[in-house]
Amino acid sequence: MDERVKSPTYSLVESYPLRAGNNAWHLDLYRIAAAEELDYLGLEALRESGALVLVEWPEHGARALPPADLHLHLSHVGEARAALLSARSARAHAWLQALARITKTRR
């Protein structure tokens, strides 16, 4: 994906096409008041599809969300940004290996 990504703060969910032919789903749960509201977002269908689902503010839906496969920590280093990705499952480890291969081919 080569396009800029915006936070889905007001729409709650944004979909982005991936080169592999599927989509990445970006959820912003900041405005979710109760975990039950996640039912309206179609989270169960996303989970069953095996899609890549990125969640901001996961603590707002903690009881309804499965454990995270991947943890992403964003920070600033001077004027630059840094991202630290940590695999928490075999699935996430495979995603990180694929990401590493893509990154190496773009250098």
From TrEMBL:
One Gene Ontology term of the biological-process aspect is: tRNA threonylcarbamoyladenosine modification
Pull one GO CC term from this UniProt entry.
cytoplasm
Which InterPro entries has this protein been placed in?
Answer: P-loop_NTPase, T6A_TsaE
* Compartments where found: Cytoplasm
MF-aspect GO terms: ATP binding; metal ion binding
Q: Identify the stretch annotated as signal peptide in this record.
A: none
Keywords per UniProt: ATP-binding, Cytoplasm, Magnesium, Metal-binding, Nucleotide-binding, tRNA processing
Q: So what family is this one in?
A: Belongs to the TsaE family.
What protein am I looking at?
A: tRNA threonylcarbamoyladenosine biosynthesis protein TsaE
